[in-house]
Design brief:
It holds the Pfam family Resolvase. GO terms for molecular function: DNA binding; DNA strand exchange activity. It comes from Candidatus Harrisonbacteria bacterium RIFOXYD1_FULL_40_9. Keywords: Coiled coil. This is DNA recombinase. It is a single chain. By secondary structure, the chain is an alpha/beta fold. Among the domains are: about 130 residues, 3-Layer(aba) Sandwich (Rossmann fold); about 140 residues, Alpha-Beta Complex (Hect, E3 ligase catalytic domain fold), CATH 3.90.1750.20; about 70 residues. The protein is about 45% helix and about 15% strand. Strand 15 and strand 16 form a beta hairpin. Helix 13 packs antiparallel against helix 14 and helix 13 crosses helix 15. It is flat and about 90 Å long. The N and C termini lie far apart (about 75 Å).
């Protein structure tokens, strides 16, 4: 249903990653949408184009911008070439279309008209269901077709490993890899250097390539360790590549850097070797003897890796260098030490941090002793906590004033809604206009209610006043366990109370905190609950320090 006051029109267009290569696909959609808008005598006010994004997800930049623009009510019609441009999945189509209609926006599909009535809705869902079924069939046939080809030794995939060109298939020949002479020489050099006795592993190989000025495919002289590892492990160089080696999955952990993913299944999981399908006959770059020698060296290094040697580090994940980099534990002549990760992260480039290594026992024992010393002075902790209450009292009053202001605004919105209903009753405006205005008020109400909840949560997190006796009892219960704690229990206690250990030269600063009462150690329980410094209801943070 359209708004009474005519506004403008917009269009949405989308191509998938596979269709992106053919620019005509997106251009034809854009032109068809613009043509329909012109023919209907309407004004195009904006356009939304997601080029190269999967239709299986709604998480697309331009679609999200379009959905956000609904609240501004600058248009009353959306042109889309076909429903599958909106989404490949019917339930997503219905969800977004319901959102469009909620704001009184009409959806016009160019390829096929669907009336806005029960019959039209039924037809739309039937067409969508059939389209989903056809897509599933196409995907299954495509998968089976690829499987048949690779089982017959036909190479699939147009992105070749380093050292090869990909020659596209022709009418008379299948696609194949051809040796890239310049890159192949680099591959041979990589294996030759790696197999030499002077090279300990991948990191020293990277450093040697940098010294020699050997360039990557992109022209850089800095080789990533992961890239070199893939080259060393790649059996394609001895004539056999594999298909079906990885499974495409939706990532379990969302990236904080990439908000919009072009593919839904953007993660990869290595399949078991039984599922790999070998494709032989690839041009050979190195000998099998060289390849086997390199694999043996990788296996030997993995077995001797310091990551596989069990050393005990009390401050794992908590200790930092003064330069800001994290410390990591490593053995030096059979003794565990802490070392700044600056050199490791910058390798093979020169390090910039001059912090020396630290004996693990000295730092661990120093931090543990400082913690035990704090347990002996509960009155210092009590004074620190109650000293914060004065500042928090002012914060509490400020929060309460903000909550009162929100309550007034909520009451005002309720009054405005009642007046809208009365105006509609008096036939001042139409039912559609009433719905639109109430939607605006409802959005404002939701924002205010959410803000009120946040402020109420802030009030709950206010630091409680603690007596000397409460803190003393608290610390006594901890001391009972801490004085006889083994290494694992020490580690749990430190993680519970210490947020960060920063080392600058021989100076050590410890950022410690008192967890909430809910995390008090129980003499009956052998479990110590984890906590954090800033996001929990901790009573306070304090700094401890010592020198070594």
């Amino acid at each position: 249903m359209t708004n009474i006051n005519k506004k403008g029109s917009v269009f949405y267009a989308r191509t998938s990653t596979e269709e992106q290569a053919d620019k005509r696909t997106i251009e034809s959609q854009i032109e068809a949408n613009k043509k329909s808008i012109r023919e209907n005598g309407e004004t195009l006010v904006d356009e939304y184009v997601d080029d190269g994004y999967s239709g299986s997800t709604l998480d697309r930049p331009q679609l999200e911008r379009l959905r956000n623009a609904l609240r501004e009510r600058t248009f009353d019609k959306i042109y889309i070439y076909s429903p599958d441009r909106l989404s490949r999945e019917l339930h997503n189509q219905l969800f977004v279309m319901k959102e469009f209609r909620k704001y009184g926006v009409e959806i016009i599909f160019i390829s096929q008209k669907f009336d806005d009535n029960p019959y039209g809705n039924l037809l739309f869902q039937m067409v969508g269901s059939i389209a989903e079924f056809e897509r599933a069939q196409i995907l299954d046939r495509t998968r089976r077709g690829k499987l048949h080809k690779v089982k017959n030794g036909i190479l699939l995939g147009s992105i070749p490993p380093f050292g090869y060109h990909y020659i596209k298939k022709s009418e008379t020949a299948a696609g194949k890899y051809e040796i890239n002479k310049e890159e192949a020489e680099t591959v041979r050099l990589i294996f030759k250097i790696f197999n030499s006795p002077s090279i300990e592993g991948i990191r020293t190989l990277s450093k040697e390539l940098l010294r020699l000025g050997v360039r990557t495919r992109g022209g850089s002289t800095k080789w990533a360790n992961s890239s070199l590892s893939r080259i060393i492990k790649n059996s394609t160089y001895i004539g056999t590549t594999f298909w079906n080696k990885y499974a495409a999955l939706e990532p379990l952990k969302e990236s904080s850097i990439i908000k919009y993913k072009r593919l839904k299944n953007s993660s990869r999981r290595l399949r078991s070797k039984e599922e790999w399908i070998p494709i032989r006959g690839v041009p050979v770059i190195i000998s099998e003897k060289e390849f086997v020698m390199a694999q043996e060296k990788l296996r030997r290094n993995a077995a001797l890796s310091i990551r596989n040697t069990k050393y005990s580090y009390l401050l794992t994940g908590l200790s930092y260098c003064g330069c800001g980099k994290r410390f990591y534990g490593y053995p030096c002549h059979g003794k565990p030490r802490y070392k700044c990760s600056d050199k490791y992260l910058k390798y093979p480039l020169p390090k910039t941090c001059q912090q020396g290594t630290i004996d693990t026992n000295i730092l661990d024992e120093g931090v543990w002793s400082a913690f035990l010393k704090t347990l002996e002075s509960p009155e210092v902790v009590t004074s620190r906590i109650n000293g914060l209450l004065t500042n928090e009292k002012d914060k509490k009053e400020e929060v309460e004033i903000q909550i009162q202001a929100i309550d007034k605004n909520l009451a005002l919105l309720a009054t405005q809604e009642q007046r809208l209903i009365e105006a509609y009753t008096e036939q001042v405006f139409s039912l559609e206009q009433l719905k639109n205005q109430r939607d605006v008020l409802e959005n404002k109400r939701k924002v205010l209610i959410e803000k009120r909840k946040q402020l109420e949560a802030d009030l709950i997190k206010q630091t409680p006043a603690l007596s000397n006796q409460e803190v003393e009892d608290y610390f006594n219960r901890i001391k009972q366990r801490a004085t006889s704690a083994n290494f694992e229990l020490r580690k749990q206690i430190i993680k519970l109370f210490v947020d960060k250990v920063a080392v600058q030269g021989s100076n050590v600063n410890i950022k410690a905190f008192l967890p909430p009462k809910a995390s008090l150690l129980s003499s009956q329980s052998q479990e110590i609950m984890s906590s954090c410094c800033c996001d929990c209801e901790c009573s306070f943070c304090m700094l401890l320090a010592f020198n070594f």
